[in-house]
Design brief:
Elements: E1 11-14, H1 18-30, E2 36-39, H2 42-52, E3 56-59, E4 62-63, E5 66-67, H3 68-78, E6 83-87, H4 92-100, E7 105-108, H5 113-127, E8 135-136, E9 141-143, E10 148-151, E11 154-157, H6 160-171, E12 177-178, H7 179-187, H8 195-209, E13 219-222, E14 226-229
Helix pairs in contact: 2-3, 6-7, 6-8
Length: about 230
């Protein structure tokens, strides 16, 4: 199963050492993570947690104005998401305390970059395993439950009509869907006269899902017949 979409999750990294922040951010970006915010204090972290709404927090234990354990308890009042402790303190009592408070994992410095990214991906897979699988296209993905297209880490909303049209195309992926069938799906039992509207919606859909809408790779026109959706990244 493809878990690449997990690398678009928002990550909050909290550590009072700039060198550690820079190193972890560099490791994560090299692995494809792009939405990362950093903080050096409990106060900064709490402010970011409310505004940034992270989907994973990586916390140091020792911070200038508190500790990671109390920070985790305060963070959980703002939102529920997984917590990984990343700290130089490896004593068993600290681990037990962290896990007892609900931490998802505990990595002790120094660590190997691959170990950190493997642990992070394992947490994200466990935490977000029930998310609706995304429909993968060549240059984007469609999340039908949320009615949005994901291109890179950009989330682009679909209109109701665009969603209806894409749903029919996806149910018939790789096969031609006639213009009449698409018009009926979007405008009901009497779809005649909506061909121009359909063309306009197809153009807007391509702007959202294609890398180059003028040369579509996923939503293909079959002249005189209709359209077909090519699913997959090849």
């Amino acid at each position: 199963m493809d878990f690449e979409y997990l690398k678009c999750k928002r990550i909050l990294l909290v550590d009072d050492e700039q060198e550690i922040l820079d190193m972890v951010v560099s490791i994560l970006k090299a692995e494809g993570f792009s939405d990362i915010e950093t903080a050096k204090t409990v106060k900064e972290a709490l402010s970011l947690a409310e505004r940034f709404k992270p989907e994973l927090a990586i916390l140091d234990v020792m911070l200038p104005d508190g500790d990671g354990f109390s920070l985790m308890e305060q963070i959980k009042q703002v939102g529920e998401y997984p917590i990984l402790f990343l700290t130089a303190r490896g004593e068993d009592e600290d681990k037990f305390k962290g896990f007892g408070l609900g931490a998802d994992d505990y990595v002790v410095k120094p660590f190997l970059p691959k170990e950190l990214t493997f642990r992070i991906m394992a947490i994200l897979r466990r935490s977000y395993k029930d998310e609706n699988p995304l429909v993968k296209l060549q240059n984007s993905e469609i999340d039908f439950d949320r009615a949005e297209v994901i291109k890179g880490c950009e989330h682009i909303a679909l209109t109701a009509k665009e969603h209806d049209i894409l749903t029919v195309l996806y149910r018939n992926a790789g096969r031609i869907v006639t213009i009449d069938a698409l018009c009926e799906a979007a405008w009901g039992e009497n779809p005649f006269g909506y061909e121009n509207s359909l063309m306009a919606h197809i153009r807007r859909i391509r702007e959202k899902i294609e890398l180059n809408p003028s040369r579509p790779a996923s939503l293909i026109t079959v002249k005189g017949l209709g359209y077909k959706l090519i699913v997959g990244d090849k």
